[in-house]
């Protein structure tokens, strides 16, 4: 029967290096909740649709409902936050 304990004198990092296992990258859940991935691009919801809706026209509200593409300058930082989203 196998046990989950490491052999004596091994640390977790040393064990992973010797067995050539790579650690998985963690996904930032806060970024994952705010973003949709479609066709290798990231989209997010537009702001200003939560309150003070009376003075906004129906056309403006309709356009605020649509998804907006994430700016190219932010794209690389989102790739690091969500590592397995785009292959």
**Low-pLDDT segments, ≥5 res:** none
Helix segment tally: 4
Q: Report the order of strands and helices.
A: HHEEHEH
* Inertia-based shape: elongated
CATH topology of the domain at 25-81: Factor Xa Inhibitor
Structural class: alpha+beta
Helix content: 25-40%
Biggest sheet layout:
3 strands, antiparallel
At the first level of CATH, what is the class of the domain at 25-81?
Few Secondary Structures
| Beta-strand percentage range | 5-15%
Distance between the termini: 38 Å
Radius of gyration: 22 Å
**Arithmetic mean pLDDT:** 85
| Strand arrangement in the largest pleated sheet | 1-2-3
- Level-2 CATH architecture of the domain at 25-81: Irregular
Number of strands: 3
Offer a few descriptive terms.
single chain, 87 residues, alpha+beta, Factor Xa Inhibitor, three-stranded antiparallel beta sheet, 36% helix, elongated
At a glance:
By secondary structure, the protein is an alpha+beta fold. It has 4 helices and 3 strands, in the order H-H-E-E-H-E-H.
Structure write-up:
Helix content is 36%, strand content 13%. By secondary structure, it is of the alpha+beta class. The protein has four helices and three strands. Strands 1-2-3 form a three-stranded antiparallel beta sheet. The longest helix is centred in the last third of the chain and has 10 residues, at 72-81. It has a domain at 25-81: Factor Xa Inhibitor. The chain is elongated. The model has no long low-confidence stretch (mean pLDDT 85). It has helices spanning 12-18, 29-34, 58-65, 72-81; strands spanning 36-38, 41-45, 67-69.
């Amino acid at each position: 029967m196998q046990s989950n304990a490491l052999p004596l004198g091994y640390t977790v990092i040393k064990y992973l290096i010797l067995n050539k296992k790579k650690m998985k990258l963690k996904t930032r859940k806060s970024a994952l909740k705010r973003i949709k991935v479609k066709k290798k691009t990231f989209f997010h919801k537009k702001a200003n649709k939560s309150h003070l809706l009376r003075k906004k026209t129906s056309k403006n509200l309709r356009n605020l409902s649509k998804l907006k593409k994430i700016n190219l300058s932010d794209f690389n930082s989102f790739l690091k936050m969500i590592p397995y989203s785009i292959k």
